[in-house]
Amino acid sequence: GTERQGLTSSNSCHPTRSVMDSVVDINEGKAGVGGKVQVKDLRVVIATACFHVVDGVTITLRKIIRRLKARGAKVLVLTAPPPGGVAEPLTVHVESVPLLSCCVGQGDYHMGVKAGEEALLAMEKFQPHVVHCTTPDFACYAIGVWAREHNIPVMGTWHSNIHDYALHWGTISTVIRPLIVLYIQHFYYALGTTYVPSEIMRKKMIKEGFESKAHGNKLEVWGRGVDCDKFNPNKRDEAWRTRMGFSPDDVVVLWVGRCVVEKRPDVYIQVMRNLTKLYPQKVRGVVCGRGDFYKKMTSIPNVQGVGWLTAEELPRVYASCDILCFPSRVETFGNVTLEGMASGLPVIAADCCSSHLVESGHNGYAIKGMDFSGYQEAIVTLMEDKKLRQQMGINGRKRAVRDFEVDAVMDQMVEHYIEVANNPPFKPKAFILNVILFPIAMLLWWPYMGIYQAGRLGPKEWVGILMFVFVMVVYLYGGDEQNEGPTDYSWIIGVCLATGAQLSGALAKVLFKSYWQYKVRWKQLAISAVSYVCIIIINPIMGLSAYSFAAQSLLAPLSILNLVWNAVLASLILKEKLSKANMVAYLLICSGCCMTSYFGIHEHKSFTYDELMGLFLEPMFLVFLVVEAIVATVGANIAWVGEKQYPPWVVRIAYGCLGGMLGGNQFLSKSLSEMISTALKTDVAIILRPGSLMLIAGTVFVLISGLRMLQKGLKFYTAMSLVPIYQGFFTITMVASALVFFKEYEQFTANMAQAYTFALLLIFGGISQLQPPETDVELETRKQGDHMA
Questions:
Q1: How many whole angstroms separate alpha carbon 203 and alpha carbon 219?
Q2: What is the pLDDT of residues 587-642, one digit of tens each?
Q3: Distance in angstroms (rounded) separating the CA atoms of residues 365 and 311
Q4: How far is the C-alpha of 473 from the C-alpha of 589, rounded, in Å?
Q5: What is the pTM of this model?
Q6: 91 pairs with which residues across the strands?
Q7: Is residue 545 a contact partner of residue 497, using CB atoms and an 8 Å limit?
Q8: What distance in Å separates the CA atoms of residue 456 and residue 85, rounded to the nearest whole number?
């Protein structure tokens, strides 16, 4: 949800002391002493990660707090500080670090790492009856430990499927997700009772092991509520629609929420692209929210963005649209769905998250599976039947008013607080916590902090570190002699030619893009001419010539330099901003390329035509082809089926793997170079032999098919997310085919192999750090004191 609560930030830069003093003045007496705790005497500590960020978690917590205060209870919030460190009234900050943007899709989120002295002192003075943990971070873990040591009951609420977010983090999720699940399981085992948003979610969590009879914890259902007076069909504003350029007959499809990968903006993008082509005069779109995909979503014809909205503006936008599209598959309840229902909109949402709210054919459609076609069909059905659309909106409104009125739902949580406060604190198995939870936390903590601290280093620091690493590796591994006899430096020519080939290719791509920046015809023609000369003549000539001077395994990693050249030229010619994170990534890539050039095979071996043909029949090479065929078949199947059956990150990897693997069979290009060299030295007729013709055809096929798969993938995914995967698999295949086909592994010594492998890890480490460009988030949303506006 994106409802904005109108809470004013304190103007004090260090408010914690005065906040705690005022808390002590108001609340005297020890927690839990005397008879039964009543609502008017209740004191609750709420520990959460990011109280300043607008999402479903903070909206729900603010509703709880308002209801607690309305009934006379006292609340203290422990949270990570907002940008600038200014605290809201009655909040105390814990120690925290920003979450990496790759984890959550935006940089506003923090993770609590320690409770901190101020937070512990604030709890001592506040003397709570109940501690409520909402986020399984390290600060909440420490706060729970403090509460148990002081015999104070601890309870939890489940707001986010954090372990499911990891499914969108690429291949690393296969390693890190099991650790995250294990840590979160034991975090909630220690809380006794955790309240989950719906019965569907409770069953899912039990199935995934978050309730354990051995530990004695239990999961109970506590739903969510909506202010049906605020979110109301009566808020529909025809004047607003007119200002947005919508006619009375236009059907406006609304998106509300963060525009990040786990919310499935790709579904909205694909559906709206299709619908604006099919119904250009009828369908319109509005995107309310921000995130990495905001710019792409609002670039679709007939789709407009309104960014984040205030608490007064958001209900008007809901009521003034016609259909709510909410394809997220990681929701625990669906506040956005409920707000849309209360506003009188038919809702089209994922069945796995919203089937407890949306009854297909009654108040919207709950879409099964991951394919966008179901969403498109549902929108078309509602778009073409106005009466059905209106009736579904009425049905959803009735359900929201009947079952989800906010005060009644929040009163249920108040009663849960009273129940927990008046019962003995839950005693978790300390042995399990200490033996399992703490080591798992450390396994997650230390790598994360290492990545976080590395991300804080500037490019200058990275240059110094990489120079030091390079010198140390040269010192340790540089003593091996690669061959006997006089040293041959022709490999340097090959490296220079390969680097030049990558530079010319990147220059052509950048010039193609700069073509559209000029309006003068002769300038456009000049740029086109230079671009085509670079890509058609200079690039292939230099690339093929490089194979005549150096081994393929030496040249293979240099293909990654295409990414670096592209970034440098784009910043110089197109004036595109180069982010700090990407500068570090490119430094890692360049360092790895330099090391592979230094430690690779410097001896170049030439082959005759007969020797080349014989290499194609070597058993090891045939095994290599079989492995490639199996991987290609699996990748092609995933790419063909697409997101109907597989998560987006799996399909993206399939496209990158298939394209990079096909294009990376550069042993054909080197073989072609050797064949041409042999023909020019001995007999030109060699070029017309069947083997030569098949070699030429194979070289052209792998190049074109690899680029075709990349082009196909770019239809669905951004270049920054797909091209690094393509380049990574391109390099892996290129290195592997060189080692197997030309038997270059025979020339590697143990030290050379170790250093070469380390250099490749540097390159792939750089690729993994590449991030998409930041979205144009409005500056005012970043200003301190206005983070809730």
A1: 9
A2: 777 777 777 777 777 677 778 888 888 888 889 889 989 999 999 899 888 888 87
A3: 27
A4: 16
A5: 0.54
A6: 77
A7: yes
A8: 19
